[in-house]
Amino acid sequence: MFTPQGPTLRELAVQAFSSIEHGYDLLAPKFDHTPFRTPDHLLDAVVRTVRPLGPFATGLDICCGTGAGVGVLRRLCDERVTGVDFSAGMLAAAASAPASAPASASRSASAAGSAEFTSAAVDWVRADARALPFAPVFDLAVSFGAFGHFLPAERPVLFAQAHAVLRPGGLFVFPLPAPPRVGSPLYWALWGFDSAMRLRNLLWHPRFVMYYRTFRLPEVLDELARTGFATELLPLTDLGQRPDGSPRCALVVARRE
Questions:
Q1: Which domain of life is it from (predicted)?
Q2: Taking a C-beta distance cutoff of 8 angstroms, is the pair 161, 132 a contact?
């Protein structure tokens, strides 16, 4: 699962017994060499699905990490994109990556796969996603792979913050894989990971919140609606279908009305 350039087992263990923020500060230099980074084929599928919903001038990547989602926004937004994260280490890694340099219309090879960037400027901001320091100036907000770091009780605040930074009509979008079949190897792997994480947080402080089975689609759609979003699901057809014909991954599109 890890490349030779990725973290060692000892480094992962130290991260796992740290706080979320400090753990990601430690992991940041090698994060892109782990399976935790959102894969390019998923990022590319999101770009192709979101592009017809535009145009977009400004974009925000919530919990941007090392900037893979910012690469998506730089393919969709024409003026300015911003990555926000509370880990200084992840932001430093994002800002130092070649893809974070000022874009030009002819530049290719982005963090989200081989594609042209727009000429949008890029900003990196350190902040907590539950208290975003922005006015409603964004046309598009995205987030990739971060929701497991928030307990279910925190989601209303998180969604309210996403709503507050969007202009009227702005979109908050994120991919959501279909749940694994009950009893499948992936089902038991995720169940085991969440159980181990809960035990770790009972016995060790500071907590490291990361759960895979707490972000359930019906609950998420209800919470988005209560926040003031109108939601729809778009299949990410590039990622294929399950045996029953349903998509392996869908894109949640939440519009600020």
A1: Bacteria
A2: yes
26 — pLDDT class (breaks 50, 70, 90): confident
Q: Do 239 and 248 contact (CB within 8 A), yes or no?
A: yes
Which uninterrupted H or E stretch holds 251? Answer: strand 249-256
Chain centre to alpha carbon of residue 182: 25
Element (H, E) at 186: helix 185-203
User: Which residues are paired to 62 by β-bridges?
Assistant: 84
| Domains of the chain, earliest start first | 1-36 (no CATH), 38-179+216-256 (3.40.50.150)
Residue 100 has pLDDT above 90, yes or no: no
Please list the residues that pair with 235 across neighbouring strands: 250
Reading the block at residue 126, the tokens are 């350190």
Which CA distances in Å does 108 have to 73, 190, 195, 246? 14, 36, 42, 33
Cut 0.85: pTM above it: yes
pLDDT, residue 23, reads: 82
Give CA separation, 167 vs 34, 57, 79, 223, 227, in Å.
Answer: 35, 11, 15, 19, 14
